[in-house]
Amino acid sequence: MSRRLISLNPDLQRLINEGFEVELRSGHLLVHSVPYVNSNKQIARGVIVSELSTTTPDVLGRPSTHQVHFIGEHPCKADGLDLVQIRCQSGEFKLAEGVTAQHWFSNKPRCGYYESYYEKVTSYVRVISSQAKALDPTVDARTFRTHEPIEEDSVFLYQDTASSRAGIQRLSARFKPQRIAFVGLGGSGSYGLDLVAKTHVSEIHLYDADLLRPHNAFRFPGAISRDILDRGITKVKYLSEYYSTMRRGVVAREVMIDESNVMELAEFDYVFLSVDRSEVRQLVLGALAATKVVVIDVGLGLNLSADQEAIWGTCRVTASTPTTREIALAGVPRVDRDEELYASNIQVADFNCLNAALAVAKWKRMSGFYLDDQEEYETTFSVNLNQLNRREQR
């Protein structure tokens, strides 16, 4: 992907052709060997790090910010005093795996933005290196040394610039080793998949044998065309095809989970369980009780009000881990409540989406992406009360 990005962007190719040491890594542009003066009035070399913004997957746009990070000491003037006109903030900036900067600089053009990455890089090199050139006119950032482009092992078919723009590539990478299973791809499961598919998890396996029906179209993310519904394919086949346009590793398993295959789930790190039959829920939780698999179970309960003029109800997220198995199992429904309105496939995409978002946020806290101060094992939301509750292990 890095080679392709360079070949399709004249800005990057121009920097390389002029001799700058350009490297593309984890959605960042790195320019190595930039000469600067340190506080001892000696010439050292540092690395300018910029975000990368694209207009299409392979074509860079205008830089999204005029700021850059810098790896090295704080650049100084020729007399050893700090180059304060570009100073913004100093500290430890963990931008991506193997990319930690010590400074954050701001050199804003008069118009407020840089038109291109060539303009941005050469402007910062000029400001930082001019002081070094005052001590030694022969020093130059244009070394003509090359950095072999890294063909990163990514599940995505194009660069994840959302993470690099936010400087959270290192946190996003925490999902890479994980293998995830979704059991049940109805409203909540499909929204959960939509959120998880946009992370770096290596594999996502989808277990469901139901066909894609018109009512699913009103509870799934995005818009399903009539042509797709006319194909008569399963929900998981549709979803695996849909997300294959963005990433690899989404696998359709066109089967229902039962006693004959439930132990397949023991191969995964996390299992999102979003089924409407309690016997399946109990089967999965019981079968995985002695494993290290984390099961995140979601459920909805909706009813008509007494005057039948409104709907009230609750959505639930329960995390079953090796340390919360018994207490989690005690809290999930053991019997089906067929009289509830939700069992009639009522169109509540917003409630499905909320239930899925709570489940995925819990998974991200458990994975170390979000800070988890409470470590609750169960969360519920009551729509009529607009109230969120949690239960913690005592």
Automatic annotation (TrEMBL):
SUPFAM superfamilies linked: Activating enzymes of the ubiquitin-like proteins
UniProt-recorded Gene Ontology molecular function terms: nucleotidyltransferase activity
Residue intervals of the DUF6791 domain: 10-161
InterPro entries per the UniProt record, alphabetical: DUF6791, ThiF_NAD_FAD-bd, Ubiquitin-activating_enz
Domain named THIF-type NAD/FAD binding fold: residues: 174-300
Keywords tagged on the record: Nucleotidyltransferase, Transferase
Alphabetical list of Gene3D superfamilies matching this protein: NAD(P)-binding Rossmann-like Domain
Pfam families: DUF6791 (PF20590), ThiF (PF00899)
Stretches assigned to coiled coil: none
Origin superkingdom: Bacteria
Presence of keyword Transmembrane helix: no
Family matches, as NCBIfam families: PRK06153.1-3 (NF004804), PRK06153.1-4 (NF004805)
Protein name: ThiF family adenylyltransferase
Organism: Roseateles amylovorans
Lineage of the species this protein comes from: Bacteria, Pseudomonadati, Pseudomonadota, Betaproteobacteria, Burkholderiales
